[in-house]
Design a protein that fits this description.
Layout lengths: L1 E4 L3 H8 L4 E2 L4 E2 L3 E6 L9 H5 L3 H15 L10 H10 L7 E4 L2 H8 L10 E7 H5 L4 H10 L6 H8 L2 H4 L8 E4 L6 H5 L2 E6 L6 H6 L5 E6 L4 H10 L4 H4 L3 H11 L5
Helix pairs in contact: 5-12, 7-8
Length: about 260
């Protein structure tokens, strides 16, 4: 897969918005989903992977009990995809990976931990439009009929039903991008979407290895992190905005006023 180590803020901007011009629309509309990480060595394992054990079996137990104890009013309607999105945002291990439509939100998550500013960060960029074009025909037809590029809970219900339905299409595995409903301010402010593999045990970066044209990695050198972080703060891309509430406010203030080592 393509990997580029940027050397300046200006080059970073250029690469984050690369290939976003759509001649037919005469607009700049990127087809990339972004995922920022503080450590360049971090792969695309899900929290379900990191938990260990039989991923498919553990997933069923986790989700069943989450739905049992959570309030039914916490989701707009009873769909496994809504429950997965809610669970992911509250820390339950799931097969979902967090992405954002916003390159600046991704940069926040690549520079949010000053304690490890001695390590390079990274922003993953995945062309979610072309990824969905590789989904099985039954799923593509649902998207094409609605003129959509990513799935909603309603569309995934229509295309595959529940989690078991994902595995009934395409033996080689595939990726789905899911845009969650506005369950809370965090999802809205982070401009969030999720990726999920058709098989619980599958790993996105391994799937992408044979499809390098769909992914890029922008490496943010450790020595550039302070500049990126300071400019994001000035642009109001902070914990106070992305994690609304007193916890996010406290995290922002603690980081913002901490002395530079």
């Amino acid at each position: 897969m393509e990997e580029l180590r940027v050397s300046s803020w200006a080059e970073l901007q250029e690469q984050l918005f690369a290939d976003s011009w759509h001649p037919d629309l005469r607009r700049f509309r990127s087809n990339f989903a972004y995922r920022g990480r503080n450590d360049v060595d971090e792969d695309l394992r899900t929290s379900l992977h990191r938990l260990g054990g039989n991923a498919a079996a553990v997933e069923r137990h986790l989700l069943r009990n989450f739905r049992k104890y959570a309030g039914s009013a916490d989701v707009p309607f009873d769909s496994v995809w809504n429950w997965l999105a809610l669970a992911q945002h509250h820390g339950l291990p799931t097969r979902l990976l967090d992405w954002t439509y916003s390159p600046y939100v991704a940069l926040h998550f690549a520079t949010g931990r000053p304690a490890i500013y001695d390590r390079d960060g990274v922003v993953w960029m995945v062309d979610y439009v072309r990824v969905q074009e590789q989904a099985p025909a039954a799923l593509r037809e649902v998207l094409e009929r609605q003129e959509m590029n990513v799935f909603t809970a309603e569309l995934l219900d229509e295309a595959v039903g529940g989690l078991d339905g994902l595995g009934k299409h395409g033996d080689d595995g595939y990726v789905v991008f899911l845009e969650p409903p506005s369950l809370n301010e965090r999802i809205v402010n982070q401009y969030a979407l999720f990726s999920l593999m058709s098989q619980a045990e599958a790993q996105l970066d391994e799937w992408l290895e044979s499809r390098p044209e769909l992914v890029r990695r922008l490496v943010i050198p450790a020595e550039l992190k302070w500049e990126v972080r300071d400019k994001l703060d000035q642009a109001n891309i902070t914990e106070r905005v992305l994690f609304p509430g007193l916890d996010g406010l406290s995290r922002w203030l603690a980081r913002y006023y901490a002395p530079r080592a």
